[in-house]
């Protein structure tokens, strides 16, 4: 069983696939999935995306650097939205970020992160990497290494990593296990190369799971056979 996990969630986990904004039913689902895991005392850090609000690459009318800053602010909006609903449902949560100074957001301090986990808090890392031209997958890789996670779990809308995008190709074949070298060489676009490369450098395993399948997060944390695992060798 994993004891400390960085969970990367795409913004669409908050809205539903292909939707924008927030869907309270999806957030209640997320809370239930997290609760089932927190019962076991697993420490959970969350990196949240912003695909339900803004993706830099979709705002073609804007300069890329501005569009990406708006995207990063979207992750801050999602983090605050989640913090409030998590707490209303009994999940103690702290939001940390380097990109904004707001009364409900704390700066990232490594010593404090351990204290938050020891006190039973969920930690949401908002604001991506703080740099345009990156994604929240790369932020997830960095935060996983920084918080000394056992594994980075990417909760997404596909059941794992395939030889090609399963949303576009019906005959795509799923891998149960892959090495980082394979994932990078085969250009499997489930995560960006930067994220794979950081995880390869620091031996941070990645597990990609279908977050919309009930119970999958707990299965993943219990190290049951679910999704696709990416390992050093
Ligand atoms: N080789 C692949 N295996 C699995 N999914 C892939 C692959 N290539 C591309 N994808 C796509 O990558 C997406 C990654 O999901 P996610 O990061 O959660 O969403 P998004 O990038 O749309 O915000 C999936 O929806 C899937 O369709
Ligand atoms: O380090 C980062 C992380 C995110 N973003 C911006 O924030 C948006 C939302 O993040 P992402 O696309 O990773 O969200 P997801 O698809 O996972 O919901 C991106 O499109 C980028 O515009 C960025 O510029 N730098």
UniProtKB/TrEMBL annotation:
InterPro entries: AceGlu_kinase-like_sf (IPR036393), Asp/Glu/Uridylate_kinase (IPR001048), Uridylate_kinase (IPR011817), Uridylate_kinase_bac (IPR015963). It is an enzyme of class 2 (transferase). Coiled coil: none annotated. UMP binds at residues 68, 129-136. Keywords: ATP-binding, Cytoplasm, Kinase, Nucleotide-binding, Pyrimidine biosynthesis, Transferase. GO terms for cellular component: cytoplasm. Residues 3-210 form the Aspartate/glutamate/uridylate kinase domain. Pfam families: AA_kinase. It is found in: Cytoplasm. It catalyses: UMP + ATP = UDP + ADP. ATP binds at residues 8-11, 51, 55, 156, 162, 165. Pathway: Pyrimidine metabolism; CTP biosynthesis via de novo pathway; UDP from UMP (UMPK route): step 1/1. Inhibited by UTP. GO terms for biological process: 'de novo' CTP biosynthetic process; UDP biosynthetic process. One of its GO terms (molecular function) is UMP kinase activity. Its EC number is 2.7.4.22. Belongs to the UMP kinase family. Homohexamer. Catalyzes the reversible phosphorylation of UMP to UDP. This is Uridylate kinase. It comes from Thermosipho japonicus. The gene is pyrH.
């Amino acid at each position: 069983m994993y004891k400390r996990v960085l969970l990367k969630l795409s913004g669409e986990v908050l809205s539903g696939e292909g939707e924008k904004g927030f869907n309270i039913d999806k957030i209640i689902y997320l809370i239930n999935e997290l609760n089932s895991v927190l019962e076991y005392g697993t420490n959970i850090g969350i990196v949240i995306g912003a695909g339900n609000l803004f993706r830099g690459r979709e705002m073609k009318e804007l300069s890329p650097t501005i569009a990406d800053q708006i995207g990063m602010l979207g992750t801050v909006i999602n983090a605050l939205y989640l913090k409030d609903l998590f707490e209303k449902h009994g999940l103690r949560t702290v939001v940390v970020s380097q990109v904004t100074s707001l009364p409900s957001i704390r700066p990232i301090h490594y010593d404090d992160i351990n204290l938050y986990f020891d006190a039973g808090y969920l930690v949401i890392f908002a604001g991506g990497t703080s740099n345009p031209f990156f994604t929240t997958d790369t932020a997830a890789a960095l935060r996983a290494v920084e918080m000394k996670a056992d594994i980075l779990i990417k909760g997404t809308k596909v059941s794992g990593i395939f030889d090609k995008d399963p949303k576009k190709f019906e005959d795509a074949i799923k891998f149960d296990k892959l090495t980082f070298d394979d994932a990078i060489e085969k250009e499997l676009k489930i995560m960006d190369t930067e994220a794979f490369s950081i995880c390869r450098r620091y031996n941070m395993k990645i597990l990609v799971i279908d977050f919309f399948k009930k119970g999958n997060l707990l299965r993943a944390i219990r190290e049951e056979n679910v999704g696709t695992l990416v390992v050093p060798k």
